[in-house]
Amino acid sequence: MCNRAARLGQPFLNYKSMNLVSAAEAVKLIKSSDSVYIQGSTSIPEVLVQAMTDRAPELRGVKVYTAFAIGRFDAPYAKAELRDSFEPLSFFVANNLRKAINEGVAQTIPAFLGEIPFLFRSGQVPLDVTLLNVSEPDEDGYCSYGVSADLAFSAAECSKVIIAQVNKYMPRTFGDPVIHVSKIDAMVRGDEPLVEVPTVIPNDVERRIGNFIAQEIPDGATLQIGVGGIPNAVLDALHGHKHLGLHTEAMTDGVVPLIQKGIIDNSLKKLYPGQSLACLCLGSQRLYDYLHNNRDVVIRDVAWTNDPQNIRQNPKVMAVNSAIEIDLTGQICADSIGERIFSGVGGQHDFMYGGALSEGGKCFIALPSITSKGQSKIVPTLTKGAGVVTTRFQAQYIATEHGIVYLRNKSLAERAKLLISIADPSVREDLERAAVERFGIGFLRA
Fold first, then answer.
1. How large a percentage of the chain has pLDDT more than 90?
2. Less crowded by CB within 10 Å, the N or C end of the chain?
3. 216 and 149: one domain?
4. Marked catalytic residue, from 46, 87, 157, 249
5. Domain of 355?
């Protein structure tokens, strides 16, 4: 079990006189063969990351762990010429590592996001150093992790050394993600605006999907909702609802209007009633401004937010997630395009399971029926190399622009019939032939 003791031990009396060092000096605490975790979401400590990369000639065999993160550019340490210095390992394929992973320069570690803190805390993934991007200290010397508790909270808890980039642009949030300056081994000034993620405006197809899902969401429901056009379309379609709650993994701009209008009031939640809950946030400066010093929002460790036994305690959990493709039996691929890894499991499984256990809960997988290249996303069998993120045993509601179907408790042949009904019309005949060949008379009876 990890048990990081405070190094300095003295109360912090005057944060204005804190001992700041240069980034180059701070990252000298990283040694060859160390394991380093880098904070994610939209708060990668880029100043520290670059300083660490600049030490490549001096370092050998440094394992660099990351997870969900959105960078301004490709990770500088994930280059073939630096392979002797750094070994990039990611629990979620983010945009700044996707190219390196698919070129074999970096590797991904499959894991449910909510279970990764256990890997740190149990010592299965030992950590030596955590790099953080934190707010300025308050008058008591506490810095906030801001938009990213997710894995950063447990990583810092379990690391021998903590190096922090102190950033005036980091919003101060409440909940788990705070750390006292006495627990930080080196502090670096690095005032950089957080990466902004533009709000995706839903297109007509996404709006039709969003409307189908919104019609299934009752008043008083607790929402878990992802990122992108379809989730935003769902949120746009909920403006006539009442007393919704928010217990989600990622908080985005799309929920803010619903909160400000009182549609999301969290009044019926069992956990943190009256407060919105997430483990990370990503969006525009508007969202970051909304979060700053806002006690109506609680940010917690992902091991807590994504625990299915916590999720299930809320009433009518509505878990809305996406997919890359789905086969005729209900197997859902959401992390790869064939053999090419695109993202990760993330929290989809955590909320699909927790939502299914919730009283009155519903779990949705939403996807357009075809890709931008005209290929069907509903397929006879998953593409070779595709990973199953949500099993056929967990699949419930599947929505495309052609409708929404319910697969739970249906036979494989019945599932095929239902899924074909919401596939693009141009491929339904081919899918039916594949279903007859696979399921025989069972499909014809269905």
1. 84
2. N
3. no
4. 249
5. 204-445
